[in-house]
Amino acid sequence: MHGTGGDENDLLMIGKSLAPGANLLSPRGKVSERGANRFFARSGHGVFDPAEIAERAAEFASWLSEAAAEYGFDQTKLYGLGYSNGANMIYATMLLHPGAIAGGVLLRPMVVLEPEPLPDLNGAPFLISAGDHDPLLPPGGTEALAELLTRAGARVEAAKHKADHNLTPDDFSITKYWLKTRI
Fold this sequence. Notes:
Shape: globular
Number of helices: 5
Low-confidence stretches: none
Strand order of the largest sheet: 3-4-5-6
CATH class: Alpha Beta
Strand content: 15-25%
CATH superfamily: Alpha/Beta hydrolase fold, catalytic domain
CATH topology: Rossmann fold
């Protein structure tokens, strides 16, 4: 799932490279921020409306269920790969609709939502890949997200790379290894 300003084509070639032979779904974010596609809105950098995220996550969970019925796949085997806003949508959807996605790779995510009470993610696997000089992520943001998902019962692995918000070969290397060995 793409980041802000991307579209459904952005990560397809990366997905094919990271998980050869996997069937891929790639939605486009429905929200426009000054012409840039997003999966949910923000009112400023790092400022989100939990109600709006919940509404978009419900739409996304419904879309996934419809896609599973249409294409005949088992949602318990559906893993998300998302960058930035797309990564945030993956984990927000899992927190609000457990079972809609089985787990995921979160590239450059941040905490955008903390529902109360937290659901039981029942060991859902996550990989968080962050840049250690990411100007969009608050200090401790990677650790805060890992802790949130762990409290919700997920199995979380986190890696930091010498990088900013842009993706690097290290992100793809660790993701390919994680997908191969964990899923």
